[in-house]
């Protein structure tokens, strides 16, 4: 059977040279195997420094999406989040090999990766779309920061309570004092929002969950709204407020700043093995009986 994918890219944990060195053998094994299948293989620049093989082509992370029709990411969920955001405009699908901790987004184990990847290359896979959030920070009426997130957008204070006002589609929801607020996609409900007491949402749901972090008034509870909603958060009082996206980017906020959060136009395409089951994944990762 002819392969579904003809050009493939490999991206390791490109921001961490120590991690790349630790996975050097697996990266080399993967590159050699893909080349032996007659595929056109690209490797991200930083990752390529730790592959002891020839025959592949180099590409920057920004260029990879326009050169291949599948990206294989070796790392943990953080690497998948970073690569997903970087390639959000391209629509190229991602498959993850878990070299992290929990691995909610990385399905394959290294000891099974070649067998599972061969199945995927022959068309035995599931393709799933995951929504993104985009947020815009406005100060004195001018946009000053725009970010995207696959998991969540978090507004918080590092050491003190922060006071925030929340509106959904122009309607006032609440004014609350807390350690912060998490705006999460269904994908992100198994991340920071889970530890803050938020609900787990199936990734097929079109929804955004608003989860307070340690609210001063315990009656403040998480609320889930349709994915088409426009959420506006106003910083009312804070000494050291900041906004982050997927836990990987940080920007300082000031009193009076408005943060607009809504669904992004782009989506991330994830490739799963044919027998992938979301509930099996939850049961295994969260140690449910």
Could you characterize what this model shows?
The chain has helices at residues 17-22, 24-36, 45-48, 61-64, 77-86, 113-121, 192-195, 278-285, and strands at residues 7-11, 40-44, 57-59, 70-75, 94-98, 125-139, 142-149, 152-157, 162-168, 171-178, 180-184, 207-213, 223-226, 231-237, 241-245, 249-252, 258-273. It is an alpha+beta fold and 289 residues long. The chain folds into two domains: 7-123, Rossmann fold (3-Layer(aba) Sandwich); 132-265, Sandwich (Tumour Suppressor Smad4). It starts with 6 loop residues before the first strand and ends with a helix. Involved in the regulation of the intracellular balance of NAD and NADP, and is a key enzyme in the biosynthesis of NADP. Catalyzes specifically the phosphorylation on 2'-hydroxyl of the adenosine moiety of NAD to yield NADP.
Topology:
Layout: E1 7-11, H1 17-22, H2 24-36, E2 40-44, H3 45-48, E3 57-59, H4 61-64, E4 70-75, H5 77-86, E5 94-98, H6 113-121, E6 125-139, E7 142-149, E8 152-157, E9 162-168, E10 171-178, E11 180-184, H7 192-195, E12 207-213, E13 223-226, E14 231-237, E15 241-245, E16 249-252, E17 258-273, H8 278-285
Keywords:
alpha+beta; Rossmann fold; Tumour Suppressor Smad4; 40% strand; ATP-NAD_kinase_PpnK-typ_C
The value of Rg in angstroms is 20 Å
The major sheet is characterized as: 6 strands, antiparallel
- Largest beta sheet: what is the strand line-up? 7-6-17-14-9-10
Strand content: 35-45%
Rounded mean pLDDT score: 94
| CATH topology label of the largest domain | Tumour Suppressor Smad4
Unreliable spans: none
Helix content: 10-25%
CATH class of the largest domain: Mainly Beta
- Please tell me the total number of domains: 2
Family: Belongs to the NAD kinase family.
Cofactor: a divalent metal cation
GO molecular function: ATP binding; metal ion binding; NAD binding; NAD+ kinase activity
GO biological process, one term: NAD+ metabolic process
């Amino acid at each position: 059977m002819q392969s579904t994918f003809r050009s493939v890219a490999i991206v390791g944990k490109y921001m961490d040279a120590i991690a790349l060195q630790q996975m050097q053998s697996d990266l080399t094994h993967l590159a050699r195997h893909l080349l032996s299948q007659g595929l056109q293989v690209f490797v991200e620049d930083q990752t390529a420094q730790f592959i002891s093989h020839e025959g592949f082509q180099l590409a920057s992370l920004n260029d990879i999406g326009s050169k291949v029709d599948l990206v294989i990411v070796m790392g943990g969920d953080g690497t998948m989040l970073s690569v997903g955001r970087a390639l959000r405009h391209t629509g190229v699908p991602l498959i993850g090999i878990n070299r992290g901790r929990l691995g909610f987004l990385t399905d394959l184990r290294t000891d099974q990766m070649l067998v599972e990847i061969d199945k995927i290359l022959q068309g035995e896979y599931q393709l799933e779309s995951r929504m993104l959030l985009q947020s815009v920070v406005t100060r004195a009426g001018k946009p000053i920061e725009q970010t995207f997130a696959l998991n969540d957008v978090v507004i918080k204070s590092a050491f003190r309570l922060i006071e925030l006002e929340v509106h959904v589609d122009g309607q006032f929801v609440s004014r609350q004092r807390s350690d912060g607020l998490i705006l999460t996609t269904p994908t992100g409900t198994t991340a920071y929002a889970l530890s803050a007491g938020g609900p787990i949402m199936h990734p097929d749901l079109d929804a955004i969950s608003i989860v307070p972090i340690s609210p001063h008034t315990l009656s403040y509870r998480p609320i889930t709204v349709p994915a088409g909603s426009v959420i506006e958060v106003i910083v009312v009082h804070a000494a050291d407020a900041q906004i982050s996206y997927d836990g990987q980017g940080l920007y300082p906020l000031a009193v009076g700043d408005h943060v607009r959060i809504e669904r992004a136009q782009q989506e991330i395409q994830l490739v799963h093995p044919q027998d992938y089951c979301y509930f099996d994944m939850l049961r295994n990762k969260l140690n449910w009986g």
